[in-house]
Amino acid sequence: MKNLINSIKFFFYCIKIYLEGGAEAMAMCYVTCIVAGVRTYKQVPAFLKARVKELLIAMDLQELIIED
After folding, report:
1. pTM above the 0.85 mark?
2. What is the DSSP string of 1-68?
3. Cα–Cα nearest to 51, from 34, 68, 38
4. Is-contact 35 62, C-beta < 8 A?
5. CB of 25 within 8 A of CB of 48?
6. Are 52 and 31 in contact (CB under 8 A)?
7. Contact predicate 11/36, CB 8 Å
8. What pLDDT, in 10s, does the model give residues 48-59?
9. Cβ 64 vs Cβ 58: under 8 Å
10. Do 35 and 60 form a contact (C-beta atoms < 8 A)?
11. Distance CA 30, CA 16 (A)
């Protein structure tokens, strides 16, 4: 249950950032979560995947870009 609540909080936090024009910050937030192992690249929303992929490649973390 706690995991579900945290996921919902994260979702609304991301929506808030995006609506404030912070798509770049939101992409970096996803990158941070992917690196920490909290999220996967597959869980990134479609409108952010390209930027998240660019950031992961720039950080030499291509191995974290898994679509399966």
Report:
1. no
2. -HHHHHHHHHHHHHHHHHHTT-HHHHHHHHHHHHHHTSS-GGGS-HHHHHHHHHHHHHTT-GGG----
3. 34
4. no
5. no
6. yes
7. no
8. 999 999 999 999
9. no
10. no
11. 14
Query: What confidence tier does 44 reach under pLDDT thresholds 50, 70, 90?
Result: very high
| Cα–Cα distance for residue pair 29/23, rounded to 1 Å | 10
CA distance 9 to 61: 27
CA 63 to chain centre: 15
- For 29-64, b/e burial (b = at least 16 CB within 10 A) is bbbebbeeeebebeebeeebbebbbebbeeeeeeeb
- Cβ neighbors of 10 (< 8 A, separation 6 or more) are 33
